[in-house]
Amino acid sequence: MATIDLTEASFDETILGNDIVFVDFWASWCGPCRQFAPVYEQVSEKHPEIVFAKVDTDANRRLAAEANITSIPTLMAFREQVLVFSQPGALPANAFAELVDAVKGLDMPAVHAQIEASTTDAGTESA
């Protein structure tokens, strides 16, 4: 699957409706963004089972602000609606391919249990 463009209207639906979603926050004037774009596209073509999306931060300023984007490009990965990776900067092709494999290989029951435990602990500390 080629990359798709996300907007405020489609962002939540895309994250909620897919098992794995990678999101590249970018802008047309950003040199590192333009450098990373072909890498992102190449990796997306090797994984048709994963959604690879792009958010133009100039056209979607509010969405970028809600996602706390302070530097571009920023790459995010969601697995089962959980943000499991967020990092600014362009990744080399091999590092991005390794990241995709790592996200695919996550033990999501353990991740959900860890989130549940931290939420429970946070609630206990404030009581």
From TrEMBL:
UniProt xrefs under PROSITE patterns: THIOREDOXIN_1 (PS00194), THIOREDOXIN_2 (PS51352)
Domain Thioredoxin: 1-105
Keywords, ordered alphabetically: Disulfide bond, Electron transport, Redox-active center, Transport
Pfam families to which the protein is assigned, alphabetical: Thioredoxin
InterPro entries in the record: Thioredoxin, Thioredoxin-like_sf, Thioredoxin_CS, Thioredoxin_domain
Signal peptide extent: none
Protein family membership: Belongs to the thioredoxin family.
Protein name (Swiss-Prot/TrEMBL): Thioredoxin
Species, as recorded: Luethyella okanaganae
